[in-house]
Input
Amino acid sequence: MNLLDKVKKNNLSPQKREQVYHSLGIQELMNSFPSELSGGQRQRVAIAKALYSDPSTILEDEPTASLDSERAFEVMEMLRKVTTENNKTTIVVTHDTRLIDYCERCTALPMEDCNKNGKLNFIKFCCF
Output
């Protein structure tokens, strides 16, 4: 994250950054290389990076894809909290229907292809 500070100013304060790391459970990973991380750990680091620059709009594409259910719900709760406490907009694109309860608004869009059962696949855009 230090490299990002050299490119862009007004990133998260050290205190808020530590809160994000703690809520994602990645504080002990800060000196690790990507090759040393599991898929779920990489996913959580990517979420921290997305939040680090303190954007007004947060776009998340399958943010919980590599996470177990407990961690997925923690991440969604954290995204909801960041969104509401900081007056941000968060857009989540996912196929995971477990996440719908975390969103204010959801839109299901049919995809062009069908799954193995001949049913249309849907992708869901959820907004906080």
About this structure: The chain has a mean pLDDT of 80. Residues 11 and 54 are 6 Å apart (CA to CA).
